[in-house]
Amino acid sequence: MRYTILLGAALFLLSACGVSNKNVLAMEQSYKTEIGTLNEQLRNSRDEITRMQLQIAERKGENTALLATQDKYLKRLDELEEELDKAQNQALTKQSSLGDALKAKNDQILSLENQIAAIRGALKQELETLQQIAKEFQDSLAKFPVAQYSVEVRNGKIVLALTESLLFKSGVSNRIEPNGQAALKAIGTLLNANPVLLIQVLGHTDNQAASRKNLDSWDFTSLRAATVVRSLIDTHDLGANRVISGGRGEFDPITSNETSEGQSRNRRVELSLFFPPEDLQRKITQLAERK
């Protein structure tokens, strides 16, 4: 509107100055066109301003949302850092606890290894001692026929096997022959020289009832074992508290009873010599204390 008024004033002045109507009309048309263009530009500018204002408002809203999101993530980041610190502290505590537990386990393992070493050492010492004593028994019985006795170290014991032919007449259970007495004297001497040893005496026989004059095999072998024990105690001064005896009948043969030779070997008395359990425990304790 303002541009139209200005245009009218300009045309009036031009007319008053003697400018022809034709020229005035041409100028009017030109001005109208220019004014239209300016009005269009003005409208466009206003629209652009309005659009930009809307964008600014939208951006402000976006910024607010972004700031809210940023605050949310910063808060979550703080929470995660706190959780991380807590987890690290827990890990350090657990690591320390595991370290203490591991040390305790290592100490326990070391203690067990020392105990095992002590047990092995004590068993080795005992075996060496038994082997030495067994050799002494072997030497003391060397004057008797080899077929009538045997000496071996077996399962932590010295086992002396004396056949019937060395100790008794066939079928006799209560009287030892002179050669048997001589053998028991040699054995008793060594037993008295090693007073720590305990003695188990067991009688054995074959499966032939005729060889024991039809006596029950349990009774027959028990009587023979008791006769040997009585000889060791009464004749060779062996302490009675060191000896136990019994009979195994025909039920623990060392070979087949199918031959007369096998039957003869099965008719025997075995003396098992061993250290008392507390003696082994004492050695284990001594060795463990040295570690």
From TrEMBL:
Gene Ontology cellular-component annotations: membrane
Keyword terms, alphabetized: Coiled coil, Membrane, Signal
OmpA-like domain: residues covered: 155-277
Coiled-coil segments: 28-140
Segments traversing the membrane: none
Pfam (any one): OmpA
Superkingdom classification of source: Bacteria
Stretch forming the signal peptide: 1-21
Entries under InterPro entries matching the protein: Bact_OuterMem_StrucFunc (IPR050330), OmpA-like (IPR006665), OmpA-like_sf (IPR036737)
Protein name: OmpA/MotB domain protein
Organism: Haliscomenobacter hydrossis (strain ATCC 27775 / DSM 1100 / LMG 10767 / O)
